[in-house]
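Reference record
================
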Amino acid sequence: MCVAMSGSPDEEKLEELRQKKMEQLQEQAEGQQGGASQEAAQQQAEAQKQAVLRQHLTDEARKRLNTVKMSKPQFGEQVERQVVTLARSGRIQGKIDDDKMKQLLQELKPDSKSFDIKRR
């Protein structure tokens, strides 16, 4: 770009605005590329988690966990993270079957609040 230095303040402002716009566009393009790689890393982490779960859970336990995730997604994710943590630390011997999964769900379940209603 060849900018004529006529000394006009309007032309200088216009050129300054063009530069800022170019910088913004470059940052946006870089941000989109970074977002794509972050998404790919997230997908890879999810695939690894699923592989660990397949390796350490029986079919019945996996079905139970999927059922829990359908009704309570956050709790299901918490249980999955716990199983993966146990597996990576080597504290799982063999596979977790349906009974062990029930026990694990019971242990991790948040305390339900009970209400005593007394009528007069």
